[in-house]
Amino acid sequence: MNIIYSLKYSFFILILLFLSFPILEAKNSKDVSNTQVEKKSISHKQKYSLQLVDSKDGHPVRSGNKSWRFEVREGDCGGDKKYSDCKSNRQRTELQTKEYQKRNKEYWYSASIYLPENYISAAPVKTVFSQIFEKGWKPILMITDRENKWLEVGRMWSGEYVEMKKGIKISDMKGKWTDILINVRYSRKEDGFMKVWINNKLILESLNIKTFTPYTNKGAKLEWGIYQTGVSYWKSKNGDKPYPSMVVYFDEVNQGSSKEKVIKNLRK
After folding, report:
1. Residue closest to 218 by CA, chosen among 195, 257, 186, 192
2. Which residues touch 2 (CB under 8 Å, ≥6 apart)?
3. Mean pLDDT for all residues in the chain
4. Which of 47, 60, 112, 117 has the most beta carbons within 10 angstroms of its beta carbon?
């Protein structure tokens, strides 16, 4: 009888402990995105890594009531069975679209990003806020803070920059939402294109180009959050100056076959 009571009591305590801790994985929410998303497996595993937050708790939102909050601190590297950021001078917390987008099709994406007023850049460490990644290969687009000057839009081929544009000054992003709109046709032929707008201003327009390499057939995914590469560069430049913790918010991360399907909530 005492054993049964002890087991029941222990189970009750475990339930209370479970409920007292925040859920580490951010949930899918139609309030934040119109598509199914998943956390990138190599993201760091700290409890503050990624949270679905609410405006009623004082968090910024672009529309509706919720947004995603991402945070990276010094040493927040992760990995999986195939790869480790810890061994590659990188750290991150990212979400990605659950389904691959295929070639020979046109897609639209939207993503709104918020930098808090107290945002401190990790430059010369490169921080990637959003990227389109050709799965099984390398990125074809990166939207970054590289120098604490501009939000840069870089088109890539096999992971190497082939075109770089200045979007908006980092200082002008603090304390407000910045809207990113992407229109792309994925193709291995020279009938593809890539266009990127920042706050309704066309920043990048690349027409009649190959957007997919011949090295993979898996398709592409949009990824967003905080991805820092070249982490050791901070100490090389700044010595013992503390590495800055970084927080950013994302909202209205949408995917669709038309512009209207991804920006309809931004019109409100």
Report:
1. 186
2. none
3. 91
4. 112
**pLDDT band, residue 24 (cuts 50/70/90):** very low
Any residues with CB less than 8 A from the CB of 182 and at least 6 apart, and which? Answer: 107, 108, 109, 110, 111, 132, 141, 194, 195, 196, 197, 222
pLDDT in tens, 105-149: 999 999 999 999 999 999 999 999 999 999 989 999 999 999 999
CB-CB contact of 92 with 42 (8 Å): yes
What is the percentage of the chain residues whose pLDDT exceeds 90?
83
State the Cα–Cα distance between residues 97 and 113, nearest whole angstrom: 16
DSSP structure class, residue 79: B
By three-state DSSP, how is residue 14 classified?
helix
Structure tokens at 83: 């790869």
Asked if 69 and 249 touch (Cβ cutoff 8 Å), the reply is yes
In what order do the strands lie in the sheet containing 66-72?
50-54, 66-72, 246-256, 105-115, 176-186, 192-198, 201-209
Q: Quote the CA–CA distance of 49 and 2 in Å, as a whole number.
A: 42
Token code pair at residue 179? 């809207």
CA dist 101 and 108 (Å) reads 11
pTM: 0.89
